[in-house]
Amino acid sequence: MTDAFFIHDGGDRYVPTEWTIGPWSRESQHAGPPGALLGRALERVIGRDDVQVVRATFEILRPVPLVPLQVQAEILRPGRSVILTRASMSDDKGPVMTAQGWAIRTAALDLEPQVHGPPPPEGPDAGHDVDLFTSDEVNYLKAMEWRFVKGSFMEPGPATAWARMRVSLLEDEEVSPLTRVLALADSGNGISASIDFGRWVFINPDLTVYLHRLPEGEWVCLDAQTTVEPSGIGLATSVLSDRTGLIGRGVQSLFLGPRS
Q: Which CATH class name applies to 4-106+124-258?
């Protein structure tokens, strides 16, 4: 098996591997890998080194299947300083996931950084390894290396976890900082689940990631918490960091319901 989430099948076609399989069904993907692939498309359609994607919003229209997928991207609003982009992912039945991103031109300004929020979490070296997935099944959770400094997958409530990719996004292609953080950001509701995974589903139809800085290095941290309401609506929020400090935020709305 290839050590990548996707195999590029030429042109705009990509074939998911078993490393993309998510927690809800072995017939569908975790949203992290396809989100990262759409983020790659947003970066590539811009084609400039002097801009950074600062916001990426993903709409998950239906479960992303394990079938060949077509990825296309376009610039909606060109500009010298700000650019609006859009990308889509489709199978033979139509769109499965879309993304829209704002990018802003970077410059070397005579400013001191001002970053407000919680103090940076302890680094991954202070966390404990998680190896709960001992079966021989290949999936997204095994494709990532996890180290928790607070909470765990099996402990309800807020959690802080570092993670890094054990496999690449595509064969023989270096992972960009943006795709590295997008591959993880959709896991905020998973690590901070407030209700029992065995009894309930808590599925996010969307994800928005804001980044004031791209991550440095392989490790990205999610400091996440989930709010649930008896109405069946939830919200997961994540503070995103790298080893040197905060880099942004992630937000997911949640559909809550009993497992059938």
A: mainly beta
